[in-house]
Write a structure and sequence with these properties.
The structure is a homodimer.
Chain A: E1 3-7, E2 11-14, H1 21-27, E3 46-52, H2 58-63, H3 66-70, E4 73-75, E5 85-88, H4 98-106, E6 115-121, H5 133-141, E7 149-150, H6 152-164, E8 168-174, E9 183-189, E10 197-203, E11 207-214, E12 219-227, H7 237-246, H8 250-273, E13 280-287, H9 289-296, E14 316-319, E15 332-335, H10 345-354, E16 367-372, E17 375-382, E18 385-392, E19 412-418, E20 423-427, E21 435-436, H11 438-450, H12 472-475, E22 478-481, E23 484-489, E24 495-498, H13 499-522, E25 532-536, H14 537-542, H15 545-550, E26 562-566, H16 568-578, H17 580-592, E27 594-595, H18 602-611
Parallel strand pairs in A: 1-5, 7-9, 10-13, 13-15, 16-25, 18-27, 19-21, 25-26
Antiparallel strand pairs in A: 1-2, 3-4, 3-5, 6-8, 8-9, 10-11, 11-12, 14-15, 16-17, 17-18, 19-20, 22-23, 23-24
């Protein structure tokens, strides 16, 4: 088996010849960013072979010029390992913030999954010992199997499995826990013991990510992601909830789309790891409350209208087959507990992964945890108390309602910087500019205010109004469009940013900021009291902290206090999958968080109005 | 609503106009014998209208002559009540021995089913109380619903049900018990609360009987029976077990036949009671171990071969849908616990129904409980201790392997009596003789030995050997057939009984008797010590006790000590359905019974050889 050494980490791992490089790297515990789902479309997984030989695939040749190919650049998801090699995985290819998540997870990284496999020496019946097969097995299984009821399939397989190898029997079982009762899931002769695999998912409104784990060894076997196909029914949870309630079959359709998405992710992980779905015995999903409702086929319509009560908040466990997920017979899918209709299992997973309520962080002072998407969900942890709220940021951060907005895809302007003479606009993959995504929008707004092209109210100045000393190149980007002034972004000035675009951004950032300020006020704290502002979620991981502060998206803290949590939702789901104590912990966390309903609060409305303004260059 | 008064009991019951008379009678608690399943084919349910008017149906006119019609004779299953009336239900129409069963049952006739309905005042969410629907419902439901997990269907129906009537919600739930964990099954607005129905079945090798019950009121809504369609694969459990194991799809076929049989019975009960299968939330089945395995689709092949270990013995509960029974979503089917591969849930049900181990009977002395069919299963209860065994009686009692044998159907010679000059042969329904069934066979053998036409070894005497003074009519029934002497039975001497037929009967009765004697010997008891011999099962209910003793089928006790238990298997299943404490009791009983394996015991073989002889007229 070839050995792959990963730099700069220095990990080494043995892989089967023919394994994809990305799965090898990820088996070593280095998570590579694959927004395209490992299809070679995004080039995020660009790595460099520094020793050993690895032939470039056609996809690599298309992605890199001859020089880069010669220098060893490859798409990790598009090449297969055939010989020993050393590969450098640059920071850019890694899911950012993963280190912090791991740290939070590390606090309880014990491997004690709900589902486990065991081999029982049950012996075989005789005229002196005519006990029934099941009673015999349970007696031999001891405390580990006591009180577990067999699934019907288990009972049907038991007689042959028990007798095939003189009573040496491999059993897969699920322990009892608050969300369900213990079960004997599958049985086989010991020599044909099935693998015990599990999957953890973050089911986001925009993107879903999944990981395949070997529950016996605690090794990650694969990771993959997909765009949530429900997007065709609207970018935000409200429009999906309305579709589920409003159109015949709408709920069924959304359920199937969600299930199909997780199914695809799981199938890809299984393929890359060479495993069978029949060995996947447990699945854990973290998502916002609406996503968790839709995945189970439960209407979220009442979350979308006052008083916003969900159908369920506590963790639920259902047969995977009942929600159309392809897994082992008897496999169950669990969703994490939610706090409310707008603070869901993804946020509880985040608290689980970051360990913010485990006391460890208390010493260091109050922490504000923010997950920014179409909703801005946040939790203020201070003095061991947690208070949460959610604000409707709208889809501006995902490029929607922006004249030339787009999602964070290849060609999106993701970074805008003023170099003293002009705006430097960088696109994802360095591709020709197609539009501007959320992070680019935040950068642009910050620079426009710094350079005086926009005032504190967000009004774009007309060409004639520009401040004295505005560099010519910069001034050249301002023109008068049909709806007023516009600023042209992109290297070739092909992406106009309008006043209305800025207004959309202001609405989004004001909602988030007003929520944060209301939490602080409720706790009697000021922004300066915050020891840390922890940004979670894919979008949060790519925000430029200085600019997020500059436009007033975040409470005014020194930039070094802003940290990144990465995908804390996936990390929390993973913890629950690997350690059943974490499921109980998640239930405690969900109960312990106080939810603050912002709708109809005058003080929130006031803060929202104030937050519309840009703090101005002073605070940048 | 018309009132029906039942004589001689004196019960009165109100029924909906148009209800069938048999369902009215049975709602009053009088069980009518309907081997034909209430199709008017067997005339067992013949009753007499003594007051009021009830028009005869066409089926009645075919069954009775004008005089009987005028005298009020009707088939209870073939007429519908439209006005007040008084009906006499003769003993002949009643399931014999039902009184004893009821007595056993009466000791714990409390109504406390596992599945129950309740109306919860849950209220509706508000901005001040945003709890999730499920948490709100559980909190309002209090102790009754605490710890019960919702089925997915429940969760999907909850949001609308909760809001339809201001929070007044009807819930159907299953309490937790050793065999499974508690569940919230269905939910609806209070005004549309579903009925909570349940069904209890005796799944016999030959015949299946089922009852439909209203679990809220404890009223029986219907009863029906069917021949077990598995018979096409053999009359006894061994041949069915072999078919299940030996032929591709055999197990699946037998499972479907068993499920289909129960499904038909349930459907008929629902029709007669005007109820919906969607309201049937719980099903309990008692059957021998092989039947219970086949119903669940679990191979019984290892029961059929030494060391005869079943796959499971403890009670099991599975989703009704998984075994193809049509009932409410979330409905479960439970099978009663067994003692061993050959002492099944039907026998445990019998102990439950008769209360033999409840101490009440201890004072009166040792009791031998016997269920005679193709197997003779028996339990000796002495000094609070129970010991059980099973013997292979073979199918002779059901008419198989008898030259002119038949089952207990219309036209079967069911009773044979020597009136001093000749044999009087009575057939079921008084129809023309078609063959001889088990009870007729026992009567015939007893009379042949009494009258000296057969000797104690079972040898039929030739016409020339008959004892002096043999009445001419009797002697005229003896002829020399191709295989030796034969005795012609039936009014018109159309049913020959051969020496080989007698031999088959001897093998069957010897097996039963040897088992009983072995149990007595193990307990250090003699037959005379028995306070009671309790015959259970359909066949047992029709045996003539004096003749059963005369041929040595039963241990030699005074005839008045022989009692009838009726269908104790169905009665036990009914108790488990109506009172969850009885399920726990059944588990205790199954554990407390000691099983005696007879195979390979020399002392059993000796007793078997001895028991082949007929005790002779002396003991008749």
């Amino acid at each position: 088996m070839p050995t792959v050494r990963i730099e700069p980490d220095g990990f080494s791992i043995q892989v089967a010849s023919g394994d994809s490089l990305i799965s090898a790297v990820e088996r070593a515990g280095v998570i590579v960013d694959t927004p395209c789902g490992g299809r070679g479309g995004c080039t995020k997984c660009t790595v460099r072979i520094v020793a050993g030989d690895l032939a470039p695939s056609e996809a690599c040749r298309q992605a890199f010029d001859a020089g880069k190919i010669a220098a060893g650049w490859r798409l990790a998801c598009q090449v297969r390992v055939t010989a020993d090699l050393t590969v450098e995985v640059p920071a850019a290819a890694r899911v950012r913030g993963e280190r912090i998540v791991a740290a939070g997870a590390a606090e309880s990284r014990s491997l004690d999954p709900l589902v486990f496999g065991t081999v029982v020496e049950a012996g075989v019946p005789s005229l002196e010992d005519q006990r029934a097969d099941l009673e015999r097995l349970l007696a031999a299984g001891g405390a580990g199997l006591a009180g577990l009821a067999p699934e019907l399939g288990f009972l049907r397989d038991l007689p042959r499995a028990l007798r095939a190898e003189g009573g040496r029997t491999a059993v897969v079982a699920r322990r009892a826990w608050s969300g369900g009762c213990g079960r004997l899931i599958s049985v086989a002769p010991a020599s044909r013991a099935p693998r015990v695999l599990g999957a953890a998912f973050d089911l986001g409104t925009t993107t879903a990510v999944g990981e395949l784990w070997d529950l016996a060894s605690g090794r990650r076997l694969g990771v993959a992601s997909r765009t949530n196909p429900q997007r065709e029914y609207g970018a935000d949870v409200i429009s999906r909830a309305e579709h589920a309630a409003g159109s015949p079959g709408g709920l069924r359709d959304l359920q199937r789309l969600a299930a199909g998405c997780l199914d695809e992710i799981l199938a890809e992980c299984l393929r890359s790891a060479g495993c069978r779905s029949a060995d996947v015995h447990d699945l854990v999903v973290a998502g916002n409350t609406v996503m968790q409702h839709l995945l189970l086929g439960v209407t979220p319509e009442h979350i979308a209208m006052s008083p916003f009560a969900p159908a369920f908040a506590a963790a639920r466990s259902v047969p995977a087959a009942e929600v159309l997920i392809t897994a082992a017979p008897g496999a169950r899918l669990s969703v994490l507990p939610a706090v409310s209709g707008y603070v869901g299992g993804d946020i509880v997973a985040g608290l689980l992964a970051t360990g913010l309520l485990d006391g460890a962080d208390d010493a260091s002072g109050p922490v504000l945890f923010i997950d920014i998407g179409t909703n801005g969900e946040m939790v203020l942890v201070a003095g061991g108390q947690a208070t949460a709220c959610s604000t409707a940021a709208g889809p501006a951060f995902e490029g929607a309602r922006i004249s030339h907005g787009c999602r964070a895809m290849s060609g999106a302007v993701e970074e805008v910087r003023f170099d003293g003479t002009d705006l430097v606009c960088l696109t994802i993959d360095g591709a020709a500019p197609l539009g501007i995504c959320g992070t680019g929008l935040i950068d642009a707004a910050a620079e426009l205010v710094r350079t005086g092209l926009a005032d504190e109210t967000g009004r774009l100045l007309e060409p004639g109004e520009l401040p004295a000393g505005t560099p010519a190149a910069l001034a050249g980007r301002v023109r008068l469009g049909q709806d007023g002034p516009e600023v042209l972004l992109g290297a070739g000035r092909e992406i106009p940013l309008t006043g209305r675009d800025l207004r959309e951004l202001q609405l989004a950032k004001a909602a988030v900021r007003a929520g944060a300020e209301t939490l602080l006020a409720e706790a009697g704290l000021a922004a300066g009291d915050l020891a840390r502002v922890l940004l979670a979620g894919a979008f949060g991981s790519y925000i430029d902290p200085a600019n997020a502060l500059a436009i007033g998206l975040l409470p005014a803290v020194p930039v070094e206090r802003v940290a990144f949590g990465g995908n804390t939702s996936a990390a929390g789901a993973r913890l629950a999958l690997l350690d059943r104590a974490q499921r109980e912990r998640a239930a405690e966390l969900a109960r312990s968080v106080r939810y603050l309903e912002l709708s109809g609060r005058p003080d929130f409305q006031e803060r929202f109005a104030e937050a519309m303004f840009f703090p101005g260059a002073a605070s940048g």
